[in-house]
């Protein structure tokens, strides 16, 4: 008989949900996955069904795994024979409560209190593990612990996301790249589908940028109409571009994909290819429409096993790949009781629960004691296991809170509470499985109250390292100029660190002054690090001294943004990371090489890591109103109080009276480019009342704002649910209305959230024409002051400069006609002395007061003032 040991694998059952046919007393199903092998029924760690026919117990692993072994602990204080003949079943089906899944093992007999390991000959795929006790009559099914071990089902990478798409021609603006944007949205109007013009032998192609062993392809068909158009399309895979790739072998043919459906084509054997084509043969009016094409496979020259393992490590994060990450962290606590109770004892990897074994942390008696582990990196945490002291005082841990987050405010104790310890028995280890993974670097155990000790004999933290995203790949690159066709700016964000320039994967400027390269991330990010790969085949020293600049401004092509790092030297072909002490906000990342003539700037890859800048719910700063109010509990402002509570009685929902065409409106107090709106429906009743409501966004108050454009319509939001409406394109507006176009209706909103960005302003001077009284020399031209460059060193030729004169002045002209001069009563002296805001409001004239700092022979600066006219068209 094989007595079980969990080994180094993770028990997947701990993160699952257990159920059973029925329950004897309070011996609920979850006791069999509490991480405790205690086999004494009286200790309340065993699951037991009532006496029944065909008793069963099941754990839902929450995901599909390749199960390799199962350990069952039998009851120890009596009745071991009751488990004889039980079947262990594993699979993905819930037919017959999962009891129709395949039998992978049968229990002949497990002695009382023993944990027996059932190792499967081959891994079996399944989400559900059942223990089924067949037979009629009085059958009890008793399980004191069920442990499930295995590996994740391998998940491959969608290679198409990194490719470049093209097609025969294009219908309107439905470009080929829309079919590899990672979005399966099948509604053509949402602009995520590629469509060719009506043609003969229409085709679409993705270049994967490298040759892969392709294993499967998923195609999403258009959903809003015309699904039959794709019938008969051929999928071709290969390495040839003959006939635009349409001569490559056919690996599958589309018979029919229903509207909006994503259909997978799994190839019998992997097929090598760089190019994947969808080819629609036939003459006449053929449109080829693809709302998403996904390509899965692995790199050539790697075994599938190695490839899947690599993809698993890089692309997936799954329970079985998790380890206890706490031992690699750093622990601290409010204070320490004595030399036996150091904070680090709680992450030494031992569950020893005897304090004098020097394996438990222990604070002194204090108010609100706390303990914290710094994981040193960011994780998506799925569960935490805590071992309580075993030699005494188990009750001391009652009421302790577990906090997870990224903040060190209040020593990390202000991070969100994810679990509270009611009680852990002496010496026991209890696992707290989180409903959803929680991001965090810091895990705190906080014990609120006075005169408290906090003792922890082990804290284990399970989760996945948060995989950083290289946001540069999704950006748009540009540079001062290009050396030749191989040196395009976009080569530096193609996801390829190949450092040989001849391979066409490096950007390269011509020889110039102050060369620069820039990536537009398309929206602001909080950037944490940037990695640069230098050229490897020659000339590594050319990058020495390059500045990395990050910010939100395009002044001077973005080269005026703050310098966040400087390249001293990157060896040939090396990728060097530049991490920042604090995240830096910016949409634009520039690499700028200052210096004189004859400078080349070559970059073989630029990677940008960080997080999207958190958006603010604009509604919180707005003002809400509605057609009328049902009563005092239904005020319009309740829908923007920041509270998604969906119970109307809790006074957090707006509610109109019954009326025709009821409406609710939010004034954002300024103009924004609105990108998404979230609406929370009432949860305690009447969810259907909101069906058909229109969301309108605009800048006008005609008809109380209800004439503004409709940007979304509510089909149905289930009771208490918060539904997000993401707009295909940002919509400008100050007013957001929810309008219900029916008679005798109530309009109830438990929260309305509005997200977006301020409407961009433009520096009008950039489009103007500057002049001045005269110029000091060629470097001091008036136009230098409106070149978009804030460089303040005159020698850099970016400043205007007059000659020495009495009242230098100039006129900035955007065209004609110009505004009228000021009233006769306004003199230079009075204008200088009066507030500019008052002046502008009184006379509405574009006159400005200018100061000229003049240097005289005495070495002092003498300011002079002048009233100067500003002209607009």
Automatic annotation (TrEMBL):
<feature type="domain" description="F5/8 type C">
    <location>
        <begin position="457"/>
        <end position="611"/>
    </location>
</feature>
<dbReference type="GO" id="GO:0005576">
    <property type="term" value="C:extracellular region"/>
</dbReference>
<dbReference type="InterPro" id="IPR051941">
    <property type="entry name" value="BG_Antigen-Binding_Lectin"/>
</dbReference>
<comment type="similarity">
    <text>Belongs to the fucolectin family.</text>
</comment>
<feature type="domain" description="F5/8 type C">
    <location>
        <begin position="1"/>
        <end position="151"/>
    </location>
</feature>
<comment type="function">
    <text>Acts as a defensive agent. Recognizes blood group fucosylated oligosaccharides including A, B, H and Lewis B-type antigens. Does not recognize Lewis A antigen and has low affinity for monovalent haptens.</text>
</comment>
<dbReference type="InterPro" id="IPR006585">
    <property type="entry name" value="FTP1"/>
</dbReference>
<keyword id="KW-0964">Secreted</keyword>
<dbReference type="InterPro" id="IPR000421">
    <property type="entry name" value="FA58C"/>
</dbReference>
<comment type="subunit">
    <text>Homotrimer.</text>
</comment>
<dbReference type="GO" id="GO:0010185">
    <property type="term" value="P:regulation of cellular defense response"/>
</dbReference>
<dbReference type="Pfam" id="PF22633">
    <property type="entry name" value="F5_F8_type_C_2"/>
</dbReference>
<dbReference type="InterPro" id="IPR008979">
    <property type="entry name" value="Galactose-bd-like_sf"/>
</dbReference>
<protein>
    <recommendedName>
        <fullName>F5/8 type C domain-containing protein</fullName>
    </recommendedName>
</protein>
<keyword id="KW-1015">Disulfide bond</keyword>
<feature type="domain" description="F5/8 type C">
    <location>
        <begin position="177"/>
        <end position="298"/>
    </location>
</feature>
<dbReference type="GO" id="GO:0042806">
    <property type="term" value="F:fucose binding"/>
</dbReference>
<dbReference type="GO" id="GO:0046872">
    <property type="term" value="F:metal ion binding"/>
</dbReference>
<keyword id="KW-0106">Calcium</keyword>
<dbReference type="GO" id="GO:0001868">
    <property type="term" value="P:regulation of complement activation, lectin pathway"/>
</dbReference>
<keyword id="KW-0479">Metal-binding</keyword>
<keyword id="KW-0430">Lectin</keyword>
């Amino acid at each position: 008989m094989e007595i079980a040991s969990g080994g180094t694998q993770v028990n997947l059952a701990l993160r699952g949900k257990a159920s059973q046919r029925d329950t004897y007393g309070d011996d609920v199903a979850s006791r069999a996955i509490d991480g405790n092998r205690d086999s004494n029924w009286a200790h309340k760690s065993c699951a037991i069904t009532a006496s029944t026919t065909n008793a069963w117990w099941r754990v839902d692993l929450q995901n599909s795994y390749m199960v390799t072994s199962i350990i069952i602990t039998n009851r120890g204080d009596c009745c071991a024979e009751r488990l004889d003949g039980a079947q262990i079943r594993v699979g993905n089906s819930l037919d017959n409560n999962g009891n129709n899944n395949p039998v992978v093992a049968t229990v002949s007999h497990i002695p009382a209190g023993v944990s027996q390991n059932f190792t499967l000959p081959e891994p079996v795929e399944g989400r559900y593990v059942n223990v089924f006790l067949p037979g009629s009559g009085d059958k009890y099914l008793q399980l004191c612990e069920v442990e499930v071990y295995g590996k994740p089902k391998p998940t491959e990478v969608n290679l198409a996301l990194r490719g470049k798409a093209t097609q025969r021609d294009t219908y309107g603006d439905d470009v080929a790249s829309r079919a590899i944007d990672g979005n399966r949205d099948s509604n053509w109007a949402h602009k995520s589908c590629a469509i060719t013009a009506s043609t003969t032998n229409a085709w679409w192609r993705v270049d994967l940028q490298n040759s892969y062993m392709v294993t499967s392809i998923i195609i999403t068909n258009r959903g809003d109409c015309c699904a039959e158009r794709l019938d008969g399309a051929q999928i071709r895979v290969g390495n040839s571009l003959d006939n635009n790739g349409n001569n490559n072998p056919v690996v599958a043919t589309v018979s029919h994909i229903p509207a909006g459906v994503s259909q997978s084509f799994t190839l019998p054997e992997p097929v090598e290819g760089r190019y994947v084509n969808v080819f629609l043969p036939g003459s006449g009016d053929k449109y080829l429409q693809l709302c998403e094409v996904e390509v899965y496979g692995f790199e050539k020259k790697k075994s599938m096993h190695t490839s899947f393992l690599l993809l698993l490590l890089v692309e997936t994060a799954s329970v079985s790949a998790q380890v206890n990450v706490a031992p690699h962290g750093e622990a601290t606590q409010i204070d320490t009781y004595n030399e036996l109770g150091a904070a680090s004892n709680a992450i030494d990897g031992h569950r020893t629960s005897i304090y004098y074994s020097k394996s438990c942390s222990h604070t002194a008696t204090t108010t609100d004691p706390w303990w914290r582990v710094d994981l040193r990196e960011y994780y998506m945490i799925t569960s935490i296991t805590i071992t309580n002291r075993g030699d005494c005082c188990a009750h001391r841990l009652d009421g302790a809170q577990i906090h997870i987050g990224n903040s060190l405010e209040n020593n990390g104790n202000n991070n969100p509470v994810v679990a509270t310890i009611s009680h852990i028995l002496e010496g026991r280890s209890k696992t707290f499985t989180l409903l959803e993974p929680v991001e965090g670097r810091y895990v705190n155990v906080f014990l609120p109250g006075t005169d408290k000790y906090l003792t922890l004999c082990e804290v284990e933290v399970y989760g996945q390292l948060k995989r950083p995203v290289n946001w540069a790949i999704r950006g748009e690159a540009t540079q001062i100029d290009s050396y030749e066709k191989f040196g395009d700016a976009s080569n530096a964000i193609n996801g390829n660190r190949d450092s040989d320039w001849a391979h066409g994967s490096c950007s390269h400027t011509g020889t110039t002054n102050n060369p620069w390269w820039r990536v537009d991330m398309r929206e602001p990010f909080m950037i944490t690090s940037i990695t640069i790969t230098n050229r490897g085949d020659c000339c590594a020293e050319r990058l020495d001294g390059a500045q990395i600049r990050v910010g939100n401004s395009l002044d001077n092509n973005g080269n005026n943004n703050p310098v966040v790092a400087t390249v001293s030297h990157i060896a040939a072909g090396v990728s060097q990371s530049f991490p920042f002490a604090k995240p830096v906000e910016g949409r634009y990342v520039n690499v700028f090489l200052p210096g004189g003539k004859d400078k080349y700037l070559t970059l073989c890859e630029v990677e940008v890591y960080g997080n999207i800048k958190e958006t603010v719910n604009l509604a919180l700063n707005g003002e809400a109103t509605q057609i009328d109010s049902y009563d005092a509990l239904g005020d319009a402002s309740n829908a923007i109080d920041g509270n998604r509570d969906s119970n109307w009685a809790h006074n957090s929902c707006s509610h109109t009276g019954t009326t025709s065409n009821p409406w609710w409106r939010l004034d954002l107090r300024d103009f924004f480019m609105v990108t998404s709106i979230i609406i929370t429906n009432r949860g305690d009743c009447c969810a259907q009342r909101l069906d058909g409501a229109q969301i309108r966004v605009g800048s006008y108050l005609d008809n109380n704002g209800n004439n503004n454009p409709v940007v979304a319509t509510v089909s149905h939001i289930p009771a208490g649910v918060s539904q997000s409406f993401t707009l295909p394109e940002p919509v400008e507006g100050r007013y957001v209305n929810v309008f219900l176009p029916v008679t005798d209706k109530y309009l109830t909103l438990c929260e309305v959230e509005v997200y977006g960005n301020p409407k961009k302003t433009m520096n009008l001077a950039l489009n103007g024409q500057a002049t001045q009284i005269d110029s000091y020399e060629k470097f001091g031209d008036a136009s230098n002051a409106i070149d978009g460059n804030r460089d303040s060193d005159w020698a850099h030729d970016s400043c205007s400069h007059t000659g020495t004169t009495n009242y230098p002045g100039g006129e900035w002209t955007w065209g004609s006609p110009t505004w009228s001069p000021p009233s006769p009563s306004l003199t230079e002296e009075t204008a200088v002395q009066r507030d500019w805001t008052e002046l502008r409001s009184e006379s509405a004239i574009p006159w400005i007061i200018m100061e000229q700092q003049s240097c005289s022979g005495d070495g002092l600066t003498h300011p002079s003032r002048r009233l100067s006219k500003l002209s607009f068209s």
